[in-house]
Automatic annotation (TrEMBL):
This is Uracil-DNA glycosylase. It catalyses: Hydrolyzes single-stranded DNA or mismatched double-stranded DNA and polynucleotides, releasing free uracil. The active site is at D65. InterPro entries: UDG_fam1, Ura-DNA_Glyclase_AS, Uracil-DNA_glycosylase-like, Uracil-DNA_glycosylase-like_sf. One of its GO terms (biological process) is base-excision repair, AP site formation via deaminated base removal. Excises uracil residues from the DNA which can arise as a result of misincorporation of dUMP residues by DNA polymerase or due to deamination of cytosine. It holds the Pfam family UDG. It comes from Buchnera aphidicola. GO terms for molecular function: uracil DNA N-glycosylase activity. Keywords: Cytoplasm, DNA damage, DNA repair, Glycosidase, Hydrolase. Belongs to the uracil-DNA glycosylase (UDG) superfamily. UNG family. It is found in: Cytoplasm. Its main location: cytoplasm. HAMAP family: UDG.
């Protein structure tokens, strides 16, 4: 499927930023930042969009909200800044990844920019969070924004693999055209739910199998740069 030149992130943002909900969201965020540190840093909030042009999206992995500790969140779902200790969910992701591809050395770098550069769009459902308060920006309007993002991708593409881990991500299921896209679902990789279906889901292996079937380049999940 050929993507129209009008279907770019810049055009998407141009339209979205004019909408009433987004203006309210952005103003509310500015007020919150006056009193408390917000993650990720402002320059990284839309990092996923900067690293993965919409025309190059092959896989969409939907997370919840950013990590809420200093130096962790970098604007990509499940990813942390380089040289940062791995959060529990990301450790579990790497365990499942290693189980999918035991021939490769265990990944230790938690910065997932290399995935983004290969067409893996790493989108959180909520794009910001207040310091040490997970889920604190729920209801500000990010959910509306990311709904529109997912619908946009679903409408202009075919053959995208949407990966939904956990209940919050699964709420996006209805936005995806199941007739032309692939959906992989499991429990969340957090320690509380990873044994309820995430471990053993084989999603990384399934993603590459589907990409190869579509004559697309599979993802090198172990690439660091």
């Amino acid at each position: 499927m050929v993507i129209s030149s009008n279907c770019s992130w810049s055009n998407f943002f141009f339209r979205e930023k004019k909408k009433k909900y987004f203006v309210h969201l952005w103003n509310t965020l500015k007020n919150i930042q006056k009193n408390i540190r917000v993650y990720p840093p402002k320059k990284n909030i839309f990092n996923a969009f900067l690293l993965t042009p919409v025309s190059e999206v092959k896989v969409v992995i939907i997370g919840q909200d950013p990590y809420c500790r200093f130096g962790q969140a970098n604007g990509l779902s499940f990813s942390v800044s380089k040289y940062t200790s791995l959060p529990s969910s990301l450790k579990n992701i790497f365990i499942e990844l290693q189980n999918n591809f035991p021939q490769f050395k265990m990944r230790t770098n938690g910065c997932l920019k290399s995935w983004s550069r290969q067409g893996v769009f790493l989108l959180n459902s909520i794009l910001t969070v207040s310091d040490r308060f997970p889920g604190s920006h729920k209801g500000l309007g990010w959910e509306i924004f990311t709904d529109h993002v997912i619908k946009f991708i679903s409408d202009i593409h075919t053959g995208i693999i949407f990966v939904l881990w956990g209940s919050l991500s699964s709420q996006k299921y209805h936005l995806i055209n199941k007739d032309v896209h692939f959906i992989l679902r499991s429990s969340h990789p957090s320690p509380l739910s990873c044994h309820r279906g995430f471990f053993g889901c084989k999603h990384f292996l399934k993603i590459n199998t589907i990409l190869i079937q579509q004559n697309k380049t599979p993802i090198n999940w172990f690439r660091d740069t």
